[in-house]
Amino acid sequence: MPHTYDCADADARRKGLAAAARAVRGGRLVVLPTDTVYGLGCDAFSAASVRALLKAKNRGPDMPVPVLVGSWSTIDGLVLGVPRSARQLIEAFWPGGLSLVLPHAPSLSWDLGSTKGTVMLRMPLHPVALELLRDVGPMAVSSANISGSPAPATAAGARQQLGDSVAVYLDGGDTGEPVASTVVDLTGDDPLILREGAVTTEDVAEVLGREVLTA
């Protein structure tokens, strides 16, 4: 039976984060608050856990699962190389609502879906999420909803959809009106915005000092 921890209470938050860390390391799923919506997460390096995440969402591997990190430096061990443009965007917008698509390091043994050798990375601006990520390392995290249903802004909303498929629910309060992260693809010669969300195209272009393409 999953347990929900109220992270507004210091003791419950401590216990919840410990329980969530144990669950992730044990290959189970957790729900955590982020700065956009509630996320359904697991160990990014456990293929079985990622499959369980996709099953819980009733989604196939054709939509790869993004990876959340707890620090700027974590990205160095996950990608083939960090271009200057990625450094500029990380310094400007992380933690926050910007996701970067980069070629992943070929040595990594993970299966996030049909990624075609890439990984989408983001550092969320939420203290509960960051504390968990800094404890357990990179997590595969997707919105905590059944595919095709609205992404939840509360832990209760996530539990209503996902139920017993999740081991631990971390309740960080209402995340507010859902705002998707902006997704920038840096795998080509020119930066390409795949989705505009929390960060505007103009903001990205200003930081990079160049025009950016949009999908």
TrEMBL record:
Domain YrdC-like, chain residue ranges per copy: 14-199
Statement: the UniProt record of this protein carries the keyword Nucleotide-binding: yes
Keyword Chloroplast listed: no
Chief place of localization: cytoplasm
Signal peptide limits: none
InterPro entries xref list: DHBP_synth_RibB-like_a/b_dom, Sua5-like_dom, TC-AMP_synthase_SUA5
Family, similarity comment: Belongs to the SUA5 family.
Domain of life: Bacteria
Keywords: ATP-binding, Cytoplasm, Nucleotide-binding, Nucleotidyltransferase, Transferase, tRNA processing
Lineage summary: Bacteria, Bacillati, Actinomycetota, Actinomycetes, Pseudonocardiales
Any one GO MF annotation of this record: ATP binding
NCBIfam families: L-threonylcarbamoyladenylate synthase (TIGR00057)
Enzymatic reactions: L-threonine + hydrogencarbonate + ATP = L-threonylcarbamoyladenylate + diphosphate + H2O
Annotated GO CC locations: cytoplasm
Organism per entry: Pseudonocardia hydrocarbonoxydans
Protein name: L-threonylcarbamoyladenylate synthase
Subcellular location: Cytoplasm
